[in-house]
Amino acid sequence: MTPDQLLEVNLGIVTRAQLRAAGASTAQLRRALSAGSLVAIGKNVIARPAARAASLRAVAMGGRLACVSAARERGLWVIDDGRFHVAARSMNSHAGPDGRTPPAIVHRTRHPIDPAGDLLAMESVINMLMHVAKCQPLEYAVAVFDSAVRTGQILLDELRQLATVHGGRFRLVVCLTSSQADSGIESITRIRLGAAGIAVREQVKVEGHAVDLLIGERLVIQLDGKPHGKDVQLNRGRWQDRRLSRMGYTVLRYGYAEVLFGWGKVLSEIAAAMAQRLHLR
Hints:
Layout: H1 3-9, E1 13-15, H2 16-21, H3 26-35, E2 39-41, E3 45-47, H4 53-60, E4 63-65, H5 67-73, E5 84-88, E6 104-107, H6 125-135, H7 138-150, H8 156-163, H9 168-176, H10 184-195, E7 201-206, E8 209-215, E9 219-223, H11 231-246, E10 250-254, H12 256-261, H13 263-275
Parallel strand pairs: 5-6, 9-10
Antiparallel strand pairs: 1-3, 2-3, 4-5, 7-8, 8-9
Helix pairs in contact: 5-6, 6-7, 7-10, 8-9
């Protein structure tokens, strides 16, 4: 692997030793640093100037991107908790908050699930999910796990195998993870309804079209998964809602903000519909 290839697969951030092992001489590194094509982070780390700011911050702190901060950088569906998550590289690491905004939280793990998969600047997918499971509220953690499966970053079967040897909160989240969820809001709704004792099925085909969640045989729950959905998508969804209503289904549609910030009203409305037996044929 050439130095350029090494930088490419490591998010543009590696150690001097790694570059030398890939064939870069001390003189070449000195020239690259002088020209500005590489920059030094402390004594031992070299980075491309275009490396992601979050990764550079984590490395400058003496750690690597972790938990939901790493999940966001990997393109997964996350709820922003207003913190910058970093994993210390070792238990005796001096990594600590750097006084910047958003405030940093440092995760320390004596025995990571994946002992050798981390990059210098970011946790492996497996270790990232481990920290998500331990750190985030249960339904938010499940939403991240569902997203990792949905985007193909890990297989559900692999998670289930890992859960046979790694218990606690990680195993619980894996037990609730699904390969069917279409969005994080759908994941959160599914878990919250389950916690309320309401059984749901997801992505069920009803009259030729998949619905997000189905309670019983007739109560359809549709969810707008983004804070600001596109008008075309919303209009298509509402047209489908009206079509199902004409065919005898009860359709309840909820948006991102309603689920996250008005859950009590959402649950009350669903419960009221079930009390009227609208979920039964």
